[in-house]
Amino acid sequence: xxxxxxxxxxxxxxxxxxxxxxxxxxxxxxxxxxxxxxxxxxxxxxxxxxxxxxxxxxxxxxxxxxxxxxxxxxxxxxxxxxxxxxxxxxxxxxxxxxxxxxxxxxxxxxxxxxxxxxxxxxxxxxxxxxxxxxxxxxxxxxxxxxxxxxxxxxxxxxxxxxxxxxxxxxxxxxxxxxxxxxxxxxxxxxxxxxxxxxxxxxxxxxxxxxxxxxxxxxxxxxxxxxxxxxxxxxxxxxxxxxxxxxxxxxxxxxxxxxxxxxxxxxxxxxxxxxxxxxxxxxxxxxxxxxxxxxxxxxxxxxxxxxxxxxxxxxxxxxxxxxxxxxxxxxxxxxxxxxxxxxxxxxxxxxxxxxxxxxxxxxxxxxxxxxxxxxxxxxxxxxxxxxxxxxxxxxxxxxxxxxxxxxxxxxxxxxxxxxxxxxxxxxxxxxxxxxxxxxxxx
Length: 441
Hints:
- By secondary structure, the chain is mainly alpha-helical.
- Helix content is about 75%, strand content about 0%.
- The protein is globular.
């Protein structure tokens, strides 16, 4: 009996995943300061952090494929899928454009580039991004469109190319629905795969505090806290702009659809903390798919909208790109006219979609666009060092934006269960969910 009481007390006082990650974040900063410039410690932390991200990447595609095939098969309607796809792309484009516009507005009002001497900043090596940007610029928009259709789905799976995998999974799901009873064995198998991978996700999430500690530790150990001072105002302004986008812009959009943004943020709080700490949208993707289903959105919509959003609805990245472009122009004393800024907005809209999924995409987008407004490409070397720190903030916006997108598309299709949403929110508030988000027994 006493043992049962102790177990209950243990459960009651157990830290949530969000608090565990925050503790890991704090420890990582301390380790980074202690081991600043220590190559041995940096290598160790880098490897540990990479192993954690690799664990996440290992489970992302199996979950996306399994959930998408079962969701589309249960939907079973090509017209409905086309309607959902059209709504999703239009919604993504509108939100991304607003995010770019907000970044430009804040940059014009507060002029972050006027307060620094760019020639006194420490530059970083950006050769890898330059090489990627050249490759992307040569491939063109048609190459990107052609790349949506996989010639070898297994090659796309091994390369981690999300959009070709989604394209295949959608058609495979429709084909499964079309063969009727024969497809039941496929659905049962895919459902089992999804359940197994969510169980693996639960295990992987227990290592998140360690991975976060290593990832933030290596960032601080490489840069040092002093390196942040000259660019502190730019970092602060970027974070404030992202917060405004979540609270004001997303809040207003949520209200238009009868939603409370604070309820959604409460549900995905741990995933936002995880995304912030790792600066990786992929880290939160498996749990977002799981939680949005529990929050009342149909599986078909969640499994289509969320993975697609992580490629095409990067609102945080859009804010950073427009704000950083203006920041560099101001730092070099280049005045951008209204027409030039409109051109910048249009170029960012196109370029950000054209290189979706490219490693270091936000930085590559900047490389591919700032030359169109006369800003020297070399200027990016001065903000490359703080890119990861800003990336942490923009990842939070991306996580929140794609979660909201799934709920809004679900509501627009009348496939959002409000009662289920209220029950799940109540469970989270009462602390009746485990680290993985499942109910306690």
